[in-house]
Amino acid sequence: MSKKKSMSKKKIMVVDDNPDIIYSVEQGLKALDESYEIIGVETGEDCLKLLKENKVPDLILLDIMLPEMSGWEILSRLREKPEWKDIPVVFLTARTDETARKAGGFLGDDYIEKPFQPEELKKRIDSILGKKR
Distance of alpha carbon 43 from its chain centroid, rounded? Predict the structure, then answer.
């Protein structure tokens, strides 16, 4: 039986076509802080479907290189909807080229390259969520 914390859960949606990345994020964050709830999806379609079902996270970690719908496209779909446009989006990607880095940092709330350190990821997520409150 786990100890209940008075803090509310921080819902983080991870959109990545690699299930290992979703698992790594989930294990890494939960090891550091039990107040994280990770919602993992492998496609942009699944991300949008969950949002339409009103499963709106506190923050989205978004890969850029996804099959069918890129991270850029997902972000633009999020920004079109008034009820989703304020969800912070952090690009978590293996793309390390200058274009992706600049666009990711400009369009999203942050840009983190894979492989990532869970401590750094948590620090950046907490910083963004802290500004939002």
Answer: 13
pTM: 0.91
Quick: pLDDT tens for 41-96: 999 999 999 999 999 999 999 999 999 999 999 999 999 999 999 999 999 998 88
CATH numbers and ranges of domains, the chain = 10-132 (3.40.50.2300)
Contacts of 48 (CB under 8 A, 6+ apart): 74, 77
Amino acid (1-letter code) at residue 130: G
Q: Extract the tokens encoding 110.
A: 């942050």
Residues with Cβ within 8 Å of residue 74, at least 6 apart in sequence? 15, 44, 47, 48, 62, 66
